[in-house]
Amino acid sequence: MDSEPARPRAFSGIQPTGTVHLGNYLGALRNWAKLQETTDGVYCIVDLHALSVPREPGEIRRATIEAAKDLIAIGIDPVRSTLFVQSQVREHTELAWLMQCVAAVGELRRMTQYKDKSETNDFVSAALFTYPTLQAADILLYDTQIVPVGDDQRQHIEFTRDLANRFNSRYGDVLVVPEHQIPQAGARVMDLQHPENKMSKSADSPQGTVLLTDSEAEIARKLKRAVTDNDGEVRYDPVDKPGVSNLLAMLAVATDGDPVALADDYTQYGPLKADTSAALIELLRPVQKRRAELDDAATIALLEHGAEKARAVAGPVMERVRSAVELLA
Ligand code: AQP
């Protein structure tokens, strides 16, 4: 295949829907940065996905630039990897249509993200329903082998694999079928105030969400007030002790430890919270320093260059797909 790189290709995306939080960082973005050592990384700010729920005018543009700064600060190197904005590469929406043509309505209805969001949003757009077909197109357009994501994306990546296999069985061996890569620890960072829910940019839970831009004092305060439980035992048990287990999981990722083993070091919640907070502050300090040095104009220029690199891969893949479907050249 022409566009197949010498190293395996990794692709993933993030919505410009608010400041990046610890869940994004520990569950996905840290992994993106690490994978640059061994893979050809393609990382996308998926602004069209963000429009599947209503936004204020101008919000997306600002949030896109901020998200790009977050990714660069986290360690995505726009020279080594391809960092770009989804809407600047038109092939994404073209392939998304063809994915809709092989997707079944019943499959889309079973997507838990759609079920959750359609219950909580007043206006449920058609785009919210077909969102996973655009996500499949994002991934498949780059002959992706590895998709580093948090646990919440497991079902969408499975769906992407199903669509790729179905497409290939109809049209020949056209699309590369990708695998997800979900980390052992940090794959589902929970909200500090509602540890039964995942930490999320769009959840209205400022005290439960640790943002990449939070000051050290804010991080310490949020961790100190994190909801735990009343039994007082430090044990890693995400089902019965979600709050305490969330602290242990975050501490484990930040210190390269194991959440079950770490629990043995504590007999009280206070010291566990204090150590987790100190480890997270330490982890985020260099990221925050780098982020403060980035400016808008340079970031926009890097994204334009990234879009050129992305088009150079997406264009030939789209041509291959068009030809397999036998659209008129
Ligand atoms: N809590 C989390 N723990 C671990 N990984 C997470 N991810 C998101 N939340 C967690 C991973 O981050 C990547 C980017 O996902 P996103 O842009 O969908 O992030 P979000 O915070 O989930 O954003 P929103 O706007 O609130 O989206 P919804 O409400 O749609 O989930 C992904 O790899 C994701 O797995």
Question: What would your notes on this structure say?
Answer:
The chain has 329 residues and is mostly helical. It has 13 helices and five strands. It has helices at 22-35, 47-50, 59-74, 91-102, 105-109, 112-120, 126-140, 154-171, 216-224, 242-255, 259-263, 269-292, 296-325, and strands spanning 9-14, 40-45, 82-85, 146-148, 179-181. The strands form two sheets. A three-stranded parallel β-sheet has the order 1-2-3. Strands 4-5 form a two-stranded parallel sheet. Strand 1 (9-14), helix 1 (22-35) and strand 2 form a beta-alpha-beta unit. Helix 4 crosses helix 7. Bound molecules: adenosine-5'-tetraphosphate. Residues 12, 14-15, 17, 23-24, 27-28, 113, 149-150, 152-153, 187-189, 198-202 line the site of adenosine-5'-tetraphosphate (AQP).
